[in-house]
Structure of 8-oxo-dGTP diphosphatase:
Amino acid sequence: MKKRVHVAVGVILRNDQVFLTRRHVHQHQGGKWEFPGGKVETDETVHQALHRELMEEVAIDTLAMRPLMNIAHDYEDKSVLLEVFVVDQFSGEPESQEGMEQGWFKVSELSNLEFPNANKDIIVKLQNP
Ligand SMILES: Nc1nc2c([nH]c(=O)n2[C@H]2C[C@H](O)[C@@H](COP(=O)(O)OP(=O)(O)OP(=O)(O)O)O2)c(=O)[nH]1
Ligand SMILES: [Mg+2]
């Protein structure tokens, strides 16, 4: 098995809604909804990575993050370790900088959306706090 890709993931939460973007079709797990985030680079902490990714991808300045859960998942073509944080303090209004479909969705509605399989436990945890 190849090296597990370490990914910082942000659940951007405001009241009872989360902000999602939709992965481009050509990306890994393309076409599915995601929590914004991305790969942790060498010499970077997961916190630095999440702060950087949320700035790059959706142009918010993360003011606080709290750990929600870690998920190791093996896709057929790739293994990932998702470190998931809830981000409920940020400045700026999230907006995809990469031209992705985006939106705010009620936590209770997340079961109706298509996510990468690794995300299943995140949805369960958000809906059953
Ligand atoms: N951002 C994000 N990635 C997820 C989620 N669920 C999930 O399985 N992944 C996987 C898909 C990818 O294989 C990996 C994240 O990679 P990414 O494409 O976001 O990484 P990145 O932003 O650094 O992008 P790039 O520069 O490598 O294109 O984690 C999720 O909810 N959000
Ligand atoms: Mg990304």
About this structure: The chain has one domain: 5-127.
